[in-house]
């Protein structure tokens, strides 16, 4: 059972998401919060698998809430998915750096939201297409540092991280690297451990920050 915490200051949004999620056999909404402070307290109380967190809230916004969850060792198993009304929200990169596992727009189709919750619960990175374009654009227009933090990776691990940053799944990475899916998963997991990344979303950020992956401009 995937346990979900809803953190949004709009009761109507929370009610709509709860109604959608609770009818699924494998998903359960365990709590709702109206602001970041309450969300953090409820995360500690219920230890959900997923926290769906609004980006703009009173008291503590989504980025600060994500940062607090990521910094709490007791909440290491909580995957934060940020929700926004705007597909090109300027806070995308900050949210990912804070530890968010994904970033979704609130007008997402119901079936896509359910898919998103299940993907994030597996520990996979989750970015809406418009969000991915925003992230890529940032790295097209701003300079990159080089080699930061990747020196401890093997060549195969670096290759796997680069493919994660391109949006490939473990099965696709395995096909590209001509290895088994289990070996691909092992490379990714070892890279995450060495880089102290909470999930694949942070691997994406690190890959672009370090210059391991340079976005295509054409």
From TrEMBL:
<dbReference type="InterPro" id="IPR000792">
    <property type="entry name" value="Tscrpt_reg_LuxR_C"/>
</dbReference>
<dbReference type="InterPro" id="IPR001789">
    <property type="entry name" value="Sig_transdc_resp-reg_receiver"/>
</dbReference>
<dbReference type="GO" id="GO:0003677">
    <property type="term" value="F:DNA binding"/>
</dbReference>
<keyword id="KW-0597">Phosphoprotein</keyword>
<feature type="modified residue" description="4-aspartylphosphate">
    <location>
        <position position="54"/>
    </location>
</feature>
<dbReference type="InterPro" id="IPR016032">
    <property type="entry name" value="Sig_transdc_resp-reg_C-effctor"/>
</dbReference>
<dbReference type="GO" id="GO:0000160">
    <property type="term" value="P:phosphorelay signal transduction system"/>
</dbReference>
<feature type="domain" description="HTH luxR-type">
    <location>
        <begin position="146"/>
        <end position="211"/>
    </location>
</feature>
<keyword id="KW-0805">Transcription regulation</keyword>
<dbReference type="GO" id="GO:0006355">
    <property type="term" value="P:regulation of DNA-templated transcription"/>
</dbReference>
<protein>
    <submittedName>
        <fullName>DNA-binding response regulator</fullName>
    </submittedName>
</protein>
<dbReference type="InterPro" id="IPR011006">
    <property type="entry name" value="CheY-like_superfamily"/>
</dbReference>
<keyword id="KW-0804">Transcription</keyword>
<dbReference type="Pfam" id="PF00072">
    <property type="entry name" value="Response_reg"/>
</dbReference>
<dbReference type="InterPro" id="IPR058245">
    <property type="entry name" value="NreC/VraR/RcsB-like_REC"/>
</dbReference>
<dbReference type="Pfam" id="PF00196">
    <property type="entry name" value="GerE"/>
</dbReference>
<feature type="domain" description="Response regulatory">
    <location>
        <begin position="3"/>
        <end position="121"/>
    </location>
</feature>
<dbReference type="InterPro" id="IPR039420">
    <property type="entry name" value="WalR-like"/>
</dbReference>
<keyword id="KW-0238">DNA-binding</keyword>
